[in-house]
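Sequence in, structure out. Go.
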Amino acid sequence: MTNKSVRIVSLIPSATEILATLGLADAIVGRSHECDYPPDIKHLPVCTEPQFNTDIPSSDIHDKVNDLLQSALSIYHIKTDVLEQLQPTHILTQDQCDVCAVSLQEVEKAVANFVPTSPKIISLQPNVLEDVWADIERVAHIFDVDSVKVLENLEARVKISQQRIQGLSLTELPTVACIEWTNPLMTGANWIPELVNLAGGQSLFSVTGEPSVLLEWDALIASNPDVIIFMPCGFNLIRTRQEAELLTQRSEWQKLHASQTGRVYITDGNSYFNRPGPRLVDSLEILAEILHPEIFDYGYKGTGWEPL
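Output:
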């Protein structure tokens, strides 16, 4: 199938980034409301929208999400009229997290009822870095493009980080708490602990490949991490700073080792850590810069991360 006959709708940002990295950006005809990278896809028709305003406090977002999920309702709405007009041959979505994007079930329902072209649905479900590499390979195979150079480049960058931290002793590997949501407190999971360990840290609380878990405030205080990194799902640096500063107002915050040593950081979780695509390697490099500035300087400071 030539690229000219391929019409792809991507309903999740990580899939859009995978397609672009594989040289398939021109075949994308529609996107989700969250797909914003690479910038030249922003002009494409938007096929999804959230069921509520997301500019509300974290705790309210959490409550609304829970209410919708408990009522067996989707958090996102698919614009079936737009899909119908676009007549896609392929739709990329995910079957990992109903909070991250439209659920696979919703996509299947929309396609069955409204899209006469019977597009092929490709669902991604990565939990660790290896899964992301496998997704890139699978997407490349489906569209008959080469993924070898892309994967070699990504894996080479991961190896560079690993090689540079090899000489560090255990005492030089800081304990790290990654905060994926602030109210309620949740830790970064799935590929996040893996990235922390690859960047020369010791990940606390979460298990590689497992979903995010709620974190008790007392548990954070008791573990007293060397480094705290905020990476709220879907938030940029500005919004992340606002969320993090609310936590720092709590009385025990000043007693934390990370707070006293100035090792609390905010990141652009929306662009990096929460998108299981090629930029997870950028996320690894951001972590490496934060944890070991004496070894790494990739130039992400100010755009990908900042001290709080």
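Check: The mean pLDDT is 88. The longest strand covers residues 175-182.
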